[in-house]
Structures are given as structure tokens and as C-alpha cells.
Amino acid sequence: MMGDPAIDREAFKEFEREGFSRVAQGYDGAIAHVTSQANEGILDAVETGSGSRLLDVACGTGWLSAAALKRQAIVTGLDYAENMVVIGRSRFPQIEFHLGDAENLPFESNKFDAVVCNLGILHFPEPEKAIAESLRVLKSGGRYAFTCWTPPARNPFMALILGAVQTYGIIDVDLPPGPPLFRFGDPDECQKILSASGFTSVSVTELPITWTFSKSQDVMPTIIASSARLGPMLAMQTQEQSHDIENAIIQGAKKYATDNVIQIPASVVLAVGRKP
Fold first, then answer.
1. Where are the domains positioned within the chain?
2. Which residues are registered as beta bridge partners of 217?
3. What angle do CA 27, 159, 6 make, to 5 degrees?
4. Does domain 9-152+177-211+267-274 have CATH number 3.40.50.150?
5. CA–CA gap between residue 27 and residue 48 (Å, rounded)
6. What is the pLDDT of residues 221-267, one digit of tens each?
7. How far is the C-alpha of 147 from the C-alpha of 168, rounded, in Å?
8. What are φ and ψ of residue 96, in 5° steps?
9. Where do the Methyltransferase type domain residues begin and end (predicted)?
10. How many CA atoms are closer than 13 Å to the CA of 106, on its beta-carbon side?
11. Could you give the 3-state DSSP secondary structure of residue 3?
């Protein structure tokens, strides 16, 4: 899958950069709460502890970085969306945040004890390059971990959102094409890419995630306001399509009502490897 000719890498990268900068505040208030549920599992997988030098790639607004700091790790965060980095720096001044590219890391080789990437790999036009760069900056014996959403068949939240769009709207809207969204939701694909990149002791597991909303009517507006790709896809539907999609999401979300809130299950794949 190296170098897919159908993907304009620079157009995709710029779309993602601008998109995440635009929704940084909304992302921090919504999606970051969800994705942070994987933080402890990721940090356990790379054996993060006191004095560990850890690089958080695609760090967003710094939630995973902050969780590593609580373990007394020496933390560096990197993201290519400027507003994400601005929020991270303002909230966690003890952490060194960089604006930079996961596919061309601005660090010397053999620098870090661990490199982590929580739900960032699906946003890279050439994930193989990002993984190779993570390997390069790791010390020998260091560990690397990334997560990715599982596909709709194992992910009720994604099934709800994408199923509503497939039924009542258009999935293939006019956005820069990128790598397959759920490529690394396949454990075999994770195993293959990490092994091919030079990692050993590769393991792949699944972590549960829960999306929580005050009411079912909040689901679609929240995604539009906090997602760089799903949000624009939803926003680009016609008025009629948008109405039907939102109604389907509202009705589907009601099935997950509990204790006066909506809790929709999801999951991520956690892939881990060690540098020889």
C-alpha cells in the first residue's frame, strides 16, 4: 500500500492540518475526552514510567502527553495543526510541544524510550513513513504504540454515523482522498506493517471506548464541530440529506440511552512493537 497514486499527499496533509486547526477547541472539548480513554492502555503498553523519554506523535491538545507526565515521564509532543499545539502549550507548560510532521520528525535518531500515536495514523497520507520515523527516533529496545478505530462491524459508534450517511446521504463527498479510514482497524494489517518496518515483539489488542452525550440530538452537531473529516462529510450533505441523516442518528443513539445520558460503545486497535 506504499505510495497510493490515488492520493494527493500534500492536498490530504493540508486538508488535515487546516481541519484540525479549525476544530481544535471543539476537538479538545469533545473528541479528546473520548480518545483519552485509551491513554493508560497505551502508556502501559510502552512501559512508561519515571524518567522515560516519550514522544507523543499527533499529540493534539496534549491529553496523552499529560497522562505520561503524571507518570513522571520526560514528554515531548508533536502535532502538525498549529491550534492544537497552541492549546497544548498553554495548558501543559511543563511539556515540550513541537509543530511538525510525523513523516519527517525533527528529532535526532535514538532519542526516545517510547513513541506513541493515539488515533493519528489514519490522518497520515503515508503511514509507512511515519512508522519508519518513529522507529528511527527510538532507542534500541524502545517501544512504539499506535491506535486506530476499529471498523463499523466492531464499532457501534462508527456503524451509527457512517450507516446513516450511507443510507440517507453521500459518503464520497468532494474531500481530498486519503488512506482507507479503517486500514489499521485490521489486526493483521497492524502486525504486517510493524513487522515489515523492523519492529519485533509485535502485539495487537483491542481497547473499549465509550462516546457519551447528554442527549441524542447532540451527536451530529458535536461531530461536525470537532472532527476534521467526519464533520465536513456531514456538513457537505444537502439540506434534505442532512435532515434525514441527523434523524437517523438521533433515533439510533436513543438505543444507547442509560442513566439520563447517551453512551455509545466503540473500540480501538492498539498495536505495539519493540525496536531491536
1. 9-152+177-211+267-274
2. none
3. 75
4. yes
5. 25
6. 999 999 998 999 999 999 999 999 999 999 999 999 998 999 999 99
7. 30
8. -90, 110
9. 55-146
10. 11
11. coil
CA 204 to CA 186: how far, in whole Å?
9
Q: What angle do CA 246, 269, 158 make, to 5 degrees?
A: 10
pTM score over 0.70: yes
Cell of 153: 462491524
| Contact status, residue 93 vs residue 74, Cβ threshold 8 Å | no
For residues 80 and 13, the answer to whether their CB atoms sit within 8 Å is yes
For the stretch 184-230, pLDDT in tens is: 999 999 999 999 999 999 999 999 999 999 999 999 999 999 999 89
User: With helix as H, strand as E and coil as C, how does 163-218 read?
Assistant: HHHHHHCCCCCCCCCCCCCCHHHCHHHHHHHHHHHCCEEEEEEEEEEEEEECCHHH
Of 251, 258, 167, 266, which is closest to residue 216 (Cα–Cα)?
251
Cell 502549550 sits on residue: 89
The distance in angstroms from the start CA to the end CA of the chain is 24
